[in-house]
């Protein structure tokens, strides 16, 4: 959905949905106002085709001369080994699960995303906080609580949601890498076997993502189409956004030295 009017509930203390600003209380020692970089998030469930699209986008952007960094869920140097360990030992409870992911995101935000924004890079984010919210949501974590937890996140400039139905997803995952224990929600004991569990878990996850589409201004793309068709659509929308951003830049001169 491309609507820019957003609905916020009264008990919701996220201050703003302005792209490039903190959603809620800022990281106090890291002001980010006026940073020239842009965050483009590609959201969607496991196996929907995010990595495929991001690889192609990166090449296209770099050819045009943009500096690009990629960041992705659980890829922080600090947290990746810990998350792997916790998954392997199968001892994650709900709260530690949520907090480990939040720590991973915080680490990448400070070390990768904010420096890149400052330097004028385009940050291609393979999943963003909405995946964490969807996963927490299906595990019954309170919505306001998780939104407040991620108040330190920066609202992306563009959020693309690759939307797929459960049937097409299952076909795609079986044809490629197979079903993963965690992506099947096996910790939640939703079904007798991994196939049943994957189906039930992904169905709930897809519902969670959809419920966020309007609130966070997702640009919803039909991910059932061919790779090239989806890529063309992404390039068209990102190209239009960047062209607009480039032309508005000179209208916002930096205030130097209080002049
Ligand atoms: N639009 C598409 N149609 C059919 N297969 C696709 C499409 N996009 C990706 N795939 C295939 O699906 C599998 C998962 O894609 P991938 O990009 O790794 O997903 P993700 O990063 O979202 O988990 C890969 O084998 C990929 O080639
Ligand atoms: Mg991937």
Name the CATH superfamily assignment. Answer: P-loop containing nucleotide triphosphate hydrolases
Give the number of domains.
1
Task: Name the quaternary structure.
Answer: single chain
Distance, first to last CA: 41 Å
Bound molecules: adenosine-5'-diphosphate, magnesium ion
Biggest pleated-sheet summary: 5 strands, parallel
* Unreliable stretches: 1-15, 250-259
- What is Rg? 19 Å
Strand content: 5-15%
Quick one: CATH class? Answer: Alpha Beta
Order of helices and strands: EHEHHEHHEHHEH
Rounded average pLDDT? 88
Tally of contiguous helical segments: 8
The CATH architecture name reads 3-Layer(aba) Sandwich
Q: Kindly name the structural category.
A: alpha/beta
Task: Please report the total strand number as a whole number.
Answer: 5
Morphology: globular
**Spatial ordering of strands, largest sheet:** 2-3-1-4-5
What can you tell me about this protein's structure?
There is one protein chain. By secondary structure, the chain is an alpha/beta fold. It is 45% helix and 10% strand. It is built from eight helices and five strands, in the order E-H-E-H-H-E-H-H-E-H-H-E-H. It has a five-stranded parallel β-sheet, with helices on both faces. Bound molecules: adenosine-5'-diphosphate and magnesium ion. Adenosine-5'-diphosphate binds next to helix 1 and helix 8.
